[in-house]
Amino acid sequence: MGKSIILLKKDFGPGPSTLKFTFLENGEKKTGFALLFEGSYYVYKNQCQHLPVELDWLDNNFLEDDGGFIICATHGAIYEPTSGLCVSGPCKGKSLNTMAYTITRDELVVTI
Ligand code: FES
Question: Which of 13, 22, 54, 58 shows the greatest Cβ crowding within 10 Å of its Cβ?
């Protein structure tokens, strides 16, 4: 069985909100984030599709000011929260990498 990261639902703010987490991939430290948006959860790797950099300059700051889209802090790529599709910016048409997860009553269990 693979490794997993457990996130507590109670640790999310009122949506839209995100929780950042760290995991190891091939021995390398990576980060991801879970997004609560309009009552549903989405989990993505924290990697822009333009360049191999993390999306957030300020820790756990993944959303545009109005909370409607995910934004990359480096060059402003805009991603749809529900699909991860880049709809504006240098990587338009590419999508964030999703991470598998299951939901229990109180937790999100992200598969690594
Ligand atoms: S690195 Fe994300 S838009 Fe350029």
Answer: 54
| Range of the structural domain that residue 93 is part of | 4-111
Write the secondary structure of the chain as one string of H (helix), E (strand) and C (coil).
Answer: CCCEEEEEHHHCCCCCEEEEEEEEECCEEEEEEEEEECCEEEEEECCCCCCCCCCCCCCCCCECCCCCCEECCCCCCEECCCCCEEEECCCCCCECCECCEEECCCEEEEEC
What's the CATH number where 49 sits? Answer: 2.102.10.10
Whether this model's pTM surpasses 0.90: yes
Please give the number of the atom of ligand 1 that sits closest to the Cα of 89: 3
- Which residues sit opposite 45 in a β-bridge? 32
pLDDT, one tens digit per residue, over 72-88 is 999 999 999 999 999 99
